[in-house]
Amino acid sequence: MRAARGGAAAAALRPEHMAAHARLVKAADVDAFAASTVMRAYLRGSLPLQALLLLRGLLPRAPRLLANSFSLSLALQAAAAAASSAPALLGLGASLHARALRSGFAAADLFVRTALVEMYAKTAAGEIALARAAFDEAPRRDVFLCNVMLAAYVARGEVAEARKVFDGMSGRDLVSWNTMIHGYAVRGDVGMAREIFDGTRDRDAFSWSSMISAYAKGRCSKEALELWREMRVAGVAPDCISMVSVLSACSAMGALAIGAEVHRFVESNRVEVDMKLGTALVDMYAKCGDIENSLKVFHAMPVKDVLTWSSMIIGLANHGLGHDALSLFSEMISQGLQPNEITFIGVLIACTHVGLVNDGKKYFSSMSDVHGVVPRMEHYGCMVDLLGRAGHVEEAMELIRSMTFKPDPIIWRTLLGACRIHKNVEIAEEAMAKLKVLDPLADGHYVLLSNIYAQANSWEGVAEMRKTIRRENIQRVPGRSSIEWENTVHEFVSGDRSHPRIEEIYKMLEEMMDRLRQAGYRPMTSLVLQDIDEQSKKRALAEHSEKLAIAFGLLVTPARSTLRITKNLRACEDCHSAIKLISLAYDRKLIVRDRNRFHHFSEGQCSCKDYW
């Protein structure tokens, strides 16, 4: 691999440089300028070792070759680049440093001083003290020297030290500001990254992409999309990094229109769709509910890696297309690709959503037996879900007991959900006992167990759950649902009154609920654990976040157009039942993404066939 890289770099050298090298080797008198020119060409061609070999061959005939600062700085740069991949060359850098000290260039020449700092920053095997010492010894510092020190600290994650250098700089250029934005972004400190970003004048694509990436990685998807809009208004052409980050934010928010806008930019500007960008597009379309375009992008990609295949498999599985997902997995294997842990999560989800218990067991066993992939917590969680949904609750419990590591709260919560479906009070109470220790303040556990008690007509159990919620002051995680309209994501929480068009939304909500009642809708008030009267429970259910988002969608979109809703939690049974009737009453297709999967509602039916 290294030889291939070197050959490509050598081919990139200009013929005149290769000819100059040949003349230097044969010449009795070495021309210092010609030698420096060839060394610089090797460095630009990513061949630092060849630059050093040339220098070593010439020095016996031209001992004063390093008597000028330009040649010496090139030698230091070559030593730094070569030693990063060949630690045995570390001593060469030290000898060049000694030569620089003897010649006086280390003190007097900023080119040499900057090269020294950069050399130690790249070759000191994680120890930055030598680079800092070389930096501190500089009698004067320009912006280039300071930027090298900034980059050295940021590369090692020492952003606080980088900030001290940054604050002490007498002058800064765009590289200085971008280095600090990047440093804070990589560390996950979006607040400080934004502070530096806001102070940056004449931002370039790197400035914007670093900040957008920081927001996307920090799950500040709304802020990432807002910054994307600002970037487009500012007329800055996005790079691939910023587009991948924006697509990730679109995936999280269900912002299909903005994601499609990025895709149109890629196509209209003939941007090369590499595997990273292509996979981001596949993932975005799938997570925003457009599985058809996800497949279209996937099949158009000439080269795909395991992450691309896994993203497509997971996308199909989450849309309830389990058989298609498993067919794609078989195709992937037939092409000689090795599946990884993420691939098998998609495979097991596919089996879960269509109830393929035996197939799921077979794939789970093949992970370690055939493919050498050790099952992790997530894979056991998928198997518990698969078995539990299909009614094998006791078998799911046995699988948990056989685990070689301690089950996490998600495993027990999944089992509790299966107990609700199949009315298994005994195992539900066992799962709840574990959850009270592992995750005592999560409201969902208590709601699930209360529903299980209600199904079993154990009203004492229901009353105890309500008392526990009050006594422990357990706060409900608010349901949040979003819908995209006119390139803006509109978000709602249960009982929301904050939207600028809230009066119109609630008027539409009343009309919608009236139509549902006429169609046979009966609110499932047993799902409401608050100690309130029956009418208040009905009102609480009507104001669930997904119903508000749908009411807004009915208000602002053309008749019969598709509504796409994204919710942060699992959709409740009441909303699931109501949305089926909404699709019938309004002749609409609704695509709802909850925490577990996609639901495609149409003509009074759901794609999950109530198996969810």
UniProtKB/TrEMBL annotation:
Keyword line: Repeat, Transit peptide
PPR repeat residues: 142-176, 204-238, 305-339
Gene3D superfamilies, alphabetized: Tetratricopeptide repeat domain (1.25.40.10)
Keyword check for Transit peptide: yes
Gene Ontology molecular function: mRNA binding; zinc ion binding
This protein's record includes keyword Transcription: no
GO biological process: RNA modification
InterPro entries: DYW_dom, E2_motif, E_motif, PPR_At4g14850-like_plant, PPR_rpt, TPR-like_helical_dom_sf
Domain (DYW): residue spans on this chain: 520-612
Family the UniProt entry places it in: Belongs to the PPR family. PCMP-H subfamily.
Name this protein carries in UniProt: DYW domain-containing protein
Highest classification ranks of the organism: Eukaryota, Viridiplantae, Streptophyta, Embryophyta, Tracheophyta
Gene (name only): LOC100821054
